[in-house]
């Protein structure tokens, strides 16, 4: 009986092992199928269908498989601007691609610099004598910018256009916190500070309003000039400031208003738009449905391009000289967060690992409103290790390089930015809440037992002692001096000059260049070219190596699944009113983020809160480092504005 039991257990063990092996083989096969690249032969002669069903970003955020499964929905797709530009530029050179069908129906936008990069690529495609035919139901600002590069812009009869311009709402909680007996202790340095204002004031200070109106106005001027240059016959003023008159004239028909203002060329359904594309690019031989046309999807086209193995983008054949490119995108944290969030531990690890790879140069691409001071300094020091080895380093600013983002930028020998870039924000403010008044109103009395004036401080339940108030203000001043020292040393300024351009003020790239915070205009390619010249390399002697984190197989599988979807953006949002509803939901999300920042963001921060109104829809949810138990929330929060 004992022998039979042992045999049975052996058979059960073999069965379990076989089940595990078959399950492993199943998932490996599934991953292989989902991640396999389509054959280049699947590229169809005709139009490139650019059906953007998500947002354009600097760096696509990492996918959380568990959160995706628990939510029961796929996250909105993100297109990296660099990859999108590459796909468009390659299509402009390929004889099989004869036109572009640009469908913006479910496009949710992007930040200004990324949008301009993609729009410029569309312009190059058009100048290659390849027509672009654009279509959408409802056009908003970012859609208009891309569509302005098209030869023909179509709008659905049920649609419309709403060009709102940059700007947004900042919530101020001063009166609300006072009503609920919550004290927000604010310690600051910088006349144009703004990070602490929402918690200490009931309204915007004159200095903050001046700063916001100045740089937002400059960004609007850049946007308006870009659209007018692309469509000189369009009347953008009529569709914005002159909208009431147009509404009355056309009986509220938003599609006719866009046509009358010259912002679109044709009113028609998607089927009619597709038929027009078919006249140019040819009919689809396999699909006889209305509106079908010969086309290659973006995913199929991108898969047909040469793979960028090991993060390489080749500029010359057989080159052994490489220039490293590291991306700092999103809010800066101290941990391993990212991509899509700038986890300092992850970024410094990639930099240090590549330090021994004999790179000829380094470009730091910064697209961040800042974050923790410790994380920012950690990344800056890692970049400085390249300079210590005599390796030329340039900084390429994306949409944002403010506060902690500019802290990192001080490590560059030359700083490149676009006119629309948001930078500066060199100032410091500390915000620490306490709740002694609300406890007192409920009859809770806090008694102290101390050995020194700092015992138990900061005491968010019993109140702050004068000594801790003095300490916090001194620390804020010291951090500000450190920031100024970095800026002065990096930009060849005196401390007084650095202080004059600092004071927490936010600048556009154009203003920053005039002030000496930026060296020249240009994107990533301009920074790469400068580093190559500094390294003594000719154009055909180098290639760019993008330093990236290893891709998790599960994340890659889910990402490939996302690549095949086209219904991720709710159809209810494709109308003008739907876009307005989306903005309302973002305002509610902002409320949650602001309150979470007040009580659960420990550690020293160098974060530009003034940049928040400029965040576009896909960036509304700033990545965070997770919530802490309430008893850990007593740590000091210091935000550099």
How would you characterize the overall build of this protein?
- This protein has 641 residues and is α/β, with parallel strands linked by helices.
- It has a domain at 42-166 and 227-304: 2-enoyl-CoA Hydratase, Chain A, domain 1, CATH 3.90.226.
- The chain contains 23 helices and 25 strands.
- The strands form five sheets. Strands 11, 12, 15, 17, 18, 19, 21, 22 and 23 form a nine-stranded mixed sheet that branches.
- Strand 2, helix 2 and strand 3 form a beta-alpha-beta unit.
- Helix 4 runs parallel beside helix 5.
- The protein is globular and about 85 Å long.
Keywords for this structure?
alpha/beta, nine-stranded mixed beta sheet, six-stranded parallel beta sheet, globular, disordered C terminus
Summed up:
With 641 residues, the chain is of the alpha/beta class.
